[in-house]
Write a structure and sequence with these properties.
By secondary structure, the protein is α+β, with helices and mostly antiparallel strands. It contains 14 helices and 10 strands. It has 4 domains: about 60 residues, Orthogonal Bundle (Arc Repressor Mutant, subunit A); about 50 residues; about 90 residues, SH3 type barrels (Roll); about 90 residues.
Length: about 325
């Protein structure tokens, strides 16, 4: 542990130049006293490092000294897969490991490439969740992630839709972060399925399993792509033929996400006529029941449902009720 920290001190000084003991202590999450002991150890090992005490002091290497001792540990190499998702890495307990790996890579780069990498980092930032949606922090995420890494069988208590609690024994295959929410992909019996990690109520480790045997040929990205497509088909089981204004078509990706954008793009690709006022017919996937009414009402006067007839009637009734509420006189007069 100390050898790794000494290397981190050396690489930080090489990469950033002069740093105060307080800055090093904050980076390494140790005390200032520990930093000074580490500096003494580096000096005794022949590293040309010196410290100047006082308000304007700091710790630095003698000019020109460089080391190429930047080998990545196995954990650091694995953590680099999350280098574009620092928040996700932190949620999985890999934040410090990822930072150490990135530091080693930065030091290993030639100065001109290191400067270019820093420029990119300052100009492009990946923020995964949508607006008003944070990355959730499920209490059992770390335990589930550990089981994924170490191929451990879990017994979980899980709350399904409708608040029904069930117990399952699962063999974890992978974790997916989708729109700020974590999902566990696991094998139950002979079937791969998914669980939202935030709905897991408890986790018990039962033992090991052989991933190579139970998941031969399994590809997490391919599974998730197929699952997402099937989930979308279940979520939007029917199609409505609608007329949408130009503004309505622009709002479709905002209100309905990829589903709305795809529907508008397909209408344009099919050459659907646009009338003189900018209205165009679109085949729009919709949910069942009240959810569909709520989604369509968001468009206000920028959409007209043509078919199916029952959906048009339900939407018309909802609009009439809304109009009656606002035509009833003063606010709250009907309460």
């Amino acid at each position: 542990m100390r050898a790794s920290r000494l290397l981190s001190v050396l690489l930080l000084l090489q990469n950033r130049g002069r740093l105060t003991a307080e800055q090093l202590a904050q980076e390494l999450e140790v005390s200032v006293r520990t930093v000074y002991r580490d500096i003494d150890a580096l000096s005794a090992a022949g590293v040309p490092v010196y410290a100047e005490r006082g308000r304007s002091g700091g710790i630095q290497l003698v000019g020109g000294f460089r080391t190429r001792l930047t080998g990545l540990t196995e954990a650091e190499a694995q953590a680099l897969a999350l280098s574009g998702l620092p928040d996700a890495a932190a949620e999985l307990g890999l934040g410090a490991t990822l930072a150490a790996a990135q530091l080693k890579l930065s030091v290993a780069l030639p100065p001109e490439l290191r400067a270019r990498a820093n420029t990119v980092a300052q100009r492009f930032h990946l923020d995964v969740p949508g607006w008003f949606h944070d990355v959730e922090s499920p209490p059992h995420l770390a335990a589930v992630a550990d089981a994924v890494w170490n191929e451990r069988v879990l017994r979980i208590r899980y709350v399904k839709w409708g608040r029904r609690e069930v117990e399952r024994t699962v063999e974890p295959l992978g974790l997916v972060l989708k729109a700020g929410q974590w999902y566990l992909v696991a094998r139950v019996g002979n079937t791969a399925t998914t669980y939202r990690v935030g709905r897991i109520q408890s986790v018990d480790v039962l033992g090991q399993f052989d991933r190579d045997r139970v998941a031969a040929g399994f590809d997490l990205a391919e599974f998730w792509s197929s699952f997402s497509e099937q989930f979308e088909q279940r979520l939007y089981p029917r199609t409505a033929r609608v007329r949408m204004s130009k503004l309505g078509r622009a709002l479709a990706p905002v209100y309905l996400g990829a589903v709305g954008q795809k529907a508008v793009e397909e209408a344009e690709a099919a050459g659907a006529d646009v009338d003189a006022e900018g209205w165009q017919e679109v085949e729009l996937p919709v949910e069942q029941g009240r959810s569909a009414i709520g989604e369509l009402l968001r468009f206000g006067p920028e959409i007209e449902v043509l078919e199916p007839a029952d959906l048009r009637a339900e939407l018309a009734e909802a609009v009439r009720r809304m109009a009656a509420a606002y035509d009833s006189g003063s606010a709250g007069s009907q309460r």
